[in-house]
Give the backbone structure.
Amino acid sequence: MIFYIGPLILGFLLGFILGTRIKPSPESKLKFDKEVYAIVLIAAILIAYYIGPFPYYKDFAIASGFVAAIIGLIIGKLIFGREKSNKAQIS
Amino acid sequence: MSTILKLFVFPISLIIICVGINTILGGHITPGGGFQGGAMIAGGLIFCIVVYGLKESPFKLSHSFLAGMESAGALGYVLLGIAGLFFSGFYLYNLGVDIYNIVPSAVQTLFNYPDPTNTGIIPYLNYVVGIKVLVGLSAVVIAFLESDRILGENEQ
């Protein structure tokens, strides 16, 4: 299977950069746990499937840049967007 | 804002951001591109900022982050132009396509966007323009939301 690395890398990179900015708010009562991200990922894969290979590619049946972006967002959030522990804050 | 709105806006904004990124990535052969995709990403960020407020927004867009992103976008555009000037003698020459056959094949391969459309540096230009636009539009809204606090501090 041929797959094009350009949209995968660039989509992941921009998603990752924006994902690092997702951080929990101590002031907010709302918390978005991992279930929210799992549902968003499933919804994004469905949307990518209905978009189809974009733009006019014939590699995957889904929009690869779209999926790379949501994966980048989630991985960026997981790596850099976690809540700091109390120990880290004290030290 | 209502609780229902607060529950739904963040997941929807993630999807809007992905649509924006997808628009940037297809900008070289479909309607859309750097400005449109960047505006869509900024729309997702602004959606969150307006509904949750600056303090409670899940997206923490600091001044240094926005300045860094905007600088990276501008610098990327200029560097792509200067690369064209350096290798071919023309500013913003499309090194990946090389229609005049004046660039070594290694440079052409380096600057060609890896997809079957053979568009050279156009997707990269879309990308850096998208970064600049998303930062610019987000910064305008953040500045408006911060203006009350800043004006209040100045009056005191």
User: Anything to note?
Assistant: Confidence is low (pLDDT under 50) at residues 87-91 of chain A.
